[in-house]
Amino acid sequence: MSTAREQPIFSTRAHVFQIDPATKRNWIPAGKHALTVSYFYDATRNVYRIISIGGAKAIINSTVTPNMTFTKTSQKFGQWADSRA
């Protein structure tokens, strides 16, 4: 999924949730178990990405931009958001 110019910075296992597309309010689990989530840096483009693969499917493949903020809403939950979205 990542290219040669991207370098992994950090990887961990986490329970991943996604916003429910039907309600746009509720969180639904992306899988039954914790998934590997990796943070990559592309020095050529000065860009960070968060990537998680579940089976053969990309669960997370998001670019982190300077406009984004991370909000930790509880001890075990946090989310990235772009105020322009």
Notes on the structure:
This protein has one domain (6-66): Roll (PH-domain like). 0% of the residues lie in helices and 61% in strands. It has strands at 6-14, 17-19, 27-29, 35-42, 47-54, 57-64, 68-74, 77-82. The strands form three sheets. The protein has a four-stranded antiparallel β-sheet with strand order 1-4-5-6, with no helix packed on it. Strands 2-3 form a two-stranded antiparallel sheet. It has a two-stranded antiparallel sheet with strand order 7-8. By secondary structure, the protein is an all-beta fold. It is globular. It is built from no helices and eight strands.
Characteristics of this structure?
four-stranded antiparallel beta sheet, globular, PH-domain like, mainly beta, 85 residues, 61% strand, two-stranded antiparallel ribbon
What is this entry, summarized?
Helices cover 0% and strands 61% of the residues. With 85 residues, it is mainly β. Strand 4 and strand 5 form a beta hairpin.
Alpha carbon gap, first and last residue? 25 Å
**Per CATH, what is the topology?**
PH-domain like
Mean pLDDT: 87
| CATH C-level class | Mainly Beta
Helix/strand order: EEEEEEEE
Number of H- or I-type helical stretches: 0
Give, in spatial order, the strands making up the sheet with the most strands: 1-4-5-6
User: pLDDT under 50 segments (min length 5)?
Assistant: none
Q: In percent terms, what proportion of residues is strand?
A: over 45%
Total tally of structural domains: 1
Q: What's the helical proportion of residues?
A: under 10%
The overall strand count is: 8
The largest sheet is: 4 strands, antiparallel
Tell me the name of the CATH homologous superfamily: Pleckstrin-homology domain (PH domain)/Phosphotyrosine-binding domain (PTB)
The assigned structural class equals: mainly beta
Q: At CATH's second level, what is the architecture?
A: Roll
Pfam families: WH1
GO molecular function, one term: G protein-coupled glutamate receptor binding
Domain WH1: 1-85
Subcellular location: Cytoplasm; Postsynaptic density
